[in-house]
Amino acid sequence: RIGLDIGSYNLKAVEIEVNDKTAKIINLGMKNIQGIDAVNIPQAIKDLFKEINVSAKEVNISIAGENVVARYLSLPKMAPEELKKAMEFQIEDHIPFKAEEVYTDYKIIGDDPRSKNRMQVFLVASRKELIEAKSKLIQEAGLKAQVVTMDALAIKNTLYFNYPRQDDANIAILNIGNKTTNIIITKKQTPYFVRDVRFGGETIGFLLQTKLNLDQAKAEELKRDMRSVSAEVKQMVKLSLTNLLNEIFASFDFYENLTEQRIDRVYLAGGFSQFSELKEFLGGYLNLEPIFINPFQNFSLPPKLSPEAAQADSAFFSVAIGLALEEL
């Protein structure tokens, strides 16, 4: 099974093999696409697949951003056909788009623990043009999208596959990419809260470029090691990070008010999770020490990939791994 994560900064592809006894990464690779026009991305995908020796044509992909929404609903128990009709009204009430503008899907995730006569339903909606644009890229690359899901749900797959012993913990996952942060709150593998926030590494990169008159490459290098940066610039970076922190607080408050339970653990993923100041900054305000997700933890690596190289790139592959795990 192949997961293809088409980010705004990098393409990430991974091919895995999983059975009852083993989990193997067969091939994986990453390709920088920043600055590449959308019309050239299909060729970049072809080039990446050729570089990592992947010949299969079916892939799992994902979407994210402000045009993707997910809602956790509590509804009276009803038969599947009744639910199908009821969801037409729920979509109108809970999705901030016109019904004809979106593709939707929903899944019953179990009984509502607060009422024996109600059930929990997870609803996802995406504007049609977002899915159609991504599908077009895949088709032009000579591939077929087998599964289309959310970045957030793929990340959830990665977490529970690699860290299965979570008991009843209320878990928050922060997947911080180049442009978007996925905030996921989950318990017992059920996603109770999913939100995509427009904040990512490019925000800090642009700040460093502007304030220090740097080119992009030097700014990226500084994000990994801020020791040489002045206290004034560090303070500016922290002020910018406060925007993300406010979104996290609002998300945690919503979940805690809904469930009357506290967040127990916070996991970090995404390229910007490697920002040198981030873990300490978030941990200080959240009163929880964030844990970096290693998406390769329960996989054996291919001989051509050293553990050191895998560790260096691990933050980038949580979505791709989760996509490859879909429907296994």
The backbone outline, from C-alpha atoms, is: globular
Question: What is the number of beta strands?
Answer: 13
State the low-pLDDT regions, or none: none
- What Rg do the Cα atoms give? 20 Å
Distance between the termini: 8 Å
Helical stretch tally: 10
Structural class: alpha/beta
Protein topology:
Blueprint: E1 2-6, E2 10-18, E3 23-32, H1 41-51, E4 58-63, E5 68-76, H2 80-94, E6 102-111, E7 118-127, H3 128-140, E8 144-150, H4 151-162, E9 171-176, E10 181-187, E11 190-197, H5 201-212, H6 216-224, H7 231-259, E12 265-269, H8 278-286, E13 291-292, H9 307-313, H10 318-324
Overview of the molecule:
- It contains ten helices and 13 strands.
- The chain starts with a strand and ends with a helix.
- The chain has a five-stranded mixed beta sheet, sandwiched between helices. A three-stranded antiparallel beta sheet has the order 1-2-3.
- It is of the alpha/beta class and 328 residues long.
- The mean pLDDT is 90.
